[in-house]
């Protein structure tokens, strides 16, 4: 297929994309970030519905990537994906440390705002703004997941929190593979397939994604989960974000970028 892009070209595109992202204004970062947060939240709700209807979590994982591929195709901003790209531009001296922090911070805030917005709207739609007290299967699942992702880890002490960190590394290893694999094709269908495969893997295995948790944990709190604001941030959000940075940058961004750029240079030198 003529639309296939080689790994060496992908490595060049990774750097160009990182620099381009770093130049975006705060307005664009917030808007694109908020849309991404909402789209992932919608995907979580869809995946939970599919799981509830089929009793097969694998079906939920199969449909979950729809939000991610929309984000990729529309060029929106997802902080977990940016973890694999924007710091690369800083490491290579293409952007300043301030630009890197500004980009990641505003995208994080945008993702959080979009996720919270959909959580509120989802709660209002599911309960008719608090009038319906009996919760459906999806809402019950969200409560269970919210508690498992916070007080569940905390209940196992340091080892429980470390497992959340490890799951976050493994998660963003795959998520950022999806970001980079989407660059291997010029066609819309090619991007959908290439980006969707790693996302299916991470969701099916139940790993920890910072932006997904920006929806599912506060949504669980709205539906009655026994989780506090402190539980959310101390036992999950901060730890998972740190793990996502490691998985995205070290295992994906740096690994793919440096192996293909250095190999190409060494061949030319010979």
From TrEMBL:
Principal place of residence: membrane
Membrane-topology descriptor: Multi-pass membrane protein
Localization of this protein: Membrane
Domain of life from the UniProt record: Bacteria
Keyword field contains Membrane: yes
Pfam families: Form_Nir_trans (PF01226)
Keyword terms, alphabetized: Membrane, Transmembrane, Transmembrane helix
InterPro entries: Aquaporin-like, For/NO2_transpt
Entry's transmembrane regions: 29-52, 58-91, 103-125, 158-180, 192-212, 232-258
Protein family according to the UniProt entry: Belongs to the FNT transporter (TC 1.A.16) family.
Protein name in the entry: Formate/nitrite transporter family protein
Organismal lineage: Bacteria, Pseudomonadati, Bacteroidota, Flavobacteriia, Flavobacteriales
């Amino acid at each position: 297929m003529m639309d296939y892009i080689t790994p060496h070209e992908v490595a060049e595109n990774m750097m160009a994309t990182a620099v381009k992202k770093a130049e975006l204004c705060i307005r664009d970062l917030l808007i694109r970030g908020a849309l991404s947060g909402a789209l992932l939240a919608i995907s979580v709700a869809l995946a939970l519905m599919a799981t509830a209807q089929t009793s097969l979590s694998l079906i939920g994982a199969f449909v979950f990537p729809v939000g991610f591929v929309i984000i990729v195709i529309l060029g929106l901003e997802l902080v977990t994906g940016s973890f694999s790209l924007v710091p690369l531009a800083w490491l290579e001296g293409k952007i300043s440390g301030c630009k890197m922090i500004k980009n990641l911070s505003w995208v994080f805030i945008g993702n959080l705002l979009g996720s919270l917005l959909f959580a509120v709207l989802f709660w209002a739609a599911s309960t008719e703004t608090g009038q319906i007290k009996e919760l459906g299967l999806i809402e019950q699942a969200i409560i269970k997941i919210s508690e498992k992702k916070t007080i569940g880890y905390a209940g196992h002490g340091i080892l429980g929190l470390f497992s959340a960190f490890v799951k976050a590394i493994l998660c963003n290893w795959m998520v950022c593979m999806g970001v980079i694999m989407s660059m291997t094709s010029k066609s819309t269908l090619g991007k959908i397939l290439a980006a969707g495969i790693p996302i299916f893997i991470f969701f099916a295995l139940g790993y920890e994604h910072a932006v997904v948790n920006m929806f599912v944990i506060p949504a669980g709190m709205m539906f009655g989960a026994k989780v506090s604001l402190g539980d959310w941030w101390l036992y999950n959000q901060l730890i998972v974000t740190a793990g996502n940075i490691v998985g995205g940058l070290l295992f994906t961004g740096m690994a793919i970028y440096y192996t293909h750029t250095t190999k190409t240079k060494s061949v030319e030198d010979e």
